[in-house]
Amino acid sequence: GDPLMTTIRPVNHSSSGTETAPEKITEQDTTGPEFDITQLPEPAHFLARLPVLVLDRLGALAGKIGLPILRTVLALVFLWFGALKITGNSDVFGLVAATVPWFNPHWFVPLLGSLEILLGIGLFIPRARRIVLVGLMAHLTGTFLTFIDAPSWMMHNHNLMLLNMDGEFVLKNLVLISAALVLLGATSAVRSGRAPINPAGT
After folding, report:
1. Of all helices (H) and strands (E), which one includes residue 57?
2. Residue 96 and residue 111 in contact, taking contact as beta carbons nearer than 8 Å
3. Which of 108, 109, 134, 141 counts the highest number of beta carbons within 10 A?
4. How confident is the model at residue 85 (pLDDT cuts 50, 70, 90)?
């Protein structure tokens, strides 16, 4: 009986060893490394996030200074263009004369220039800002009368898709009207106690 038991025990011992081996192999396979940006070294992790961080900072800065810059630039454009009309150095003299032929351009163009200067100054006056923005949009909308009264000044061969230089000059007023609309919304939001709109749309 003892020799048989002696031969069996080594066999059982070796089989138990082979049973635990697959468990160790399986455990090593399941703990294999996986790519995760958070496991990168700190410098590499920072460089990976750098574009997002820069855009976040620029977006925050734009949220603070975007509206004041827009208002200031719009005011300067009106002051500049108005001064050119008053001093007789504006090239829109003939265009205005063709658009509103029932007015004498020699006094009407300087009058428009004076109005534009008043609108430009009014943008720097907080209490007058909303009514000035409404007047500014009305004035800019009136410039599109040229497409009705003086189409030959606006486009080639009366083709609206073939704008000439004067047509492009007037069409860009859509951008100025949009800028005034944004400023009017922001100004009204501040006066009503609501948070101002975000021009970045975020």
Report:
1. helix 42-86
2. no
3. 109
4. very high
Identity of the amino acid at 25:
I
**Tokens 């009207």 belong to which residue?**
177
* CB-based contact 183:67 (threshold 8 Å): yes
Residue written as tokens 């949220």?
63
Between 63 and 39, residue with greater pLDDT = 63
Q: What share of the chain is helix, strand, coil (3-state, %, to 5)?
A: 80, 0, 20
Q: pLDDT digit string (tens) for 181-190?
A: 999 999 887 7
And the tokens for 40?
Answer: 């990168």
Output the CA–CA distances (angstroms, integers) from residue 8 to 1, 5, 17, 19, 91, in the order listed.
11, 5, 15, 17, 112
Measured CA distances, 103 to 93, 99, 100, 111 (Å): 12, 9, 6, 11
Token couple for 64: 């603070």
Provide DSSP, 66-123: HHHHHHHHHHHHHHHHHHHHHTT--TTHHHHHHH-TTS-HHHHHHHHHHHHHHHHHHT
* DSSP 3-state of 155: strand
Question: Is 0.85 surpassed by the pTM of this model?
Answer: no
**Taking a C-beta distance cutoff of 8 angstroms, is the pair 81, 93 a contact?**
no
**Is residue 32 pLDDT above 70, yes or no?**
no
